[in-house]
Amino acid sequence: MTADSKVREPVLLIEDDTRLSAMIKDYLEGFEYNVTAVTHGKEGMREFERDAYGALILDIMLPDRDGLELCRQIRTTSNVPILMLTARGDPLDRIVGLELGADDYLPKPFEPRELLARLRAILRRADPVGQSEMLRFGRLEIDLAALEARVDGQPCELTSYQFELLAALARRAGRVLSRDQLMDHLRGNDIDAFDRSIDVHISRIRAAIEDNPKQPRRIITVRGAGYVFARAQD
Predict the structure, then answer these.
(1) How many beta carbons lie within 10 A of that of residue 222, not counting itself?
(2) Cα 43 from Cα 14, distance rounded (Å)
(3) Which residues of the chain, if any, have pLDDT below 50?
(4) Local structure of 200: helix, strand or coil
């Protein structure tokens, strides 16, 4: 595994200003983030419910619904870190947003570096002891900081891409991910541009982590849909 290889944190950006959205996406993806950008609240809610995100960047003024309303709706089911953006400059927006459960608030215009700093801060506060650095599933440990998977304490032989693929599945344990979704989560990595390559890597991951790769208990194939990482106990 290369030293600079790491799992990219998935972030959902809901912002109707397409130029600003493109700037945020490009900037954050230059760091450790994998940004999915949408322009409408309804679309953003569908995307949020469809996939697992480490953080949400949410504009208050959206064309189809108020960002504050969207924040309130998300907080009924999720504690995902939320950073709110607004151009209105009204202190009341900040107060209401924080009362509804937003973790931080950034008025426009802003410097990209400040956005990055605030995003990192809310992610740290959401995981103050670094629990996201280690995923444990019975005898299997996935060490995100060391970029290493271990079974019974013994390192598994995985390429950097295979480790990231395993981590992407494990961080969304219990959720079925299609091959396209997996490739999207890991975009930017060198991989053949066709979905059957995912199957080859999954087979090699199973050989490394499963007791019986032909009857896997961790990474399960869902016919016609993709793969799911099962929370099976050893």
Answers:
(1) 11
(2) 9
(3) 1-5, 128-131, 188-195
(4) helix
